[in-house]
Design a protein that fits this description.
- With 181 residues, the chain is of the alpha/beta class.
- 39% of the residues lie in helices and 14% in strands.
- It has one domain (18-174): HAD superfamily/HAD-like (Rossmann fold, 3-Layer(aba) Sandwich), CATH 3.40.50.1000.
- The protein contains 7 helices and 6 strands, in the order αβαβαβαβαβαβα.
- It has a 6-stranded parallel β-sheet with strand order 1-6-5-2-3-4, sandwiched between helices.
- Helix 6 links the parallel strand 5 and strand 6 (146-150).
- The longest helix has 13 residues, at 162-174.
Length: 181
């Protein structure tokens, strides 16, 4: 059987597992009604540089409003972070009235599966939202979830993380991704 007959190969030719379904400027520009129309029932949302800067504890008021808007539309939300600061993740999750977990080890499937099980949804009913292709998008795509890449909310200042951001920017450029909203 020819390699071109495999669905994953066809997807690879278009960017495959590294291509998000949407690329947006922020969580606030995501069309929640459109997600509901697509059959999405739950969101797995990254914390660091997706909803707030990784260095902060103070949750912006706009994030509280966005979470309430999402809940009003009937969607469930689960926060995930690759960060090791468990107390910070717990504080943010509890403050927003939703579940969450740190030390997610994205793009590995464990946290994504735990989140989907907690929300009682299947991958095709789930959207994964995050600011990194190499963790959030790849992890979500491997599970068959709908993936949304957002621009990071803060400029990277960590010398350790700068090479990763450079690689991410190179991938975005090579995929010719343009912000939808």
């Amino acid at each position: 059987m020819a390699l071109e007959n495999f669905d994953y190969y066809k997807e690879e030719k278009k960017g495959g597992f590294i291509r998000p379904k949407e690329y947006v400027s922020s969580i606030f520009t995501i069309d929640i009604d459109d997600l509901v129309k697509k059959g999405i029932k739950a969101l797995i949302v990254d914390i660091d540089d997706t909803i707030m800067p990784r260095s902060e504890y103070k949750i912006p008021f706009a994030v509280y409003s966005w979470v309430e808007k999402v809940k009003e539309k009937g969607l469930k939300i689960f926060l995930v972070s690759n960060g090791s600061r468990v107390p910070r993740t717990d504080y943010i999750s509890k403050s927003l009235g939703i579940n969450g977990m740190a030390l997610s080890f994205k793009p590995l499937p464990f946290a994504f599966k735990k989140a989907m099980n907690a929300m009682d949804v299947a991958p095709e009913e789930t959207a994964v939202i995050g600011d990194q292709i190499l963790t959030d998008v790849i992890g979500g795509n491997l599970l068959g979830a709908y993936t949304i890449l957002v621009k990071p909310v803060a400029k990277e200042v960590s010398m350790i993380r700068m090479p990763m951001r450079f690689l991410e920017d190179s991938i975005i450029n090579s995929l010719d991704l343009e912000i939808n909203s």
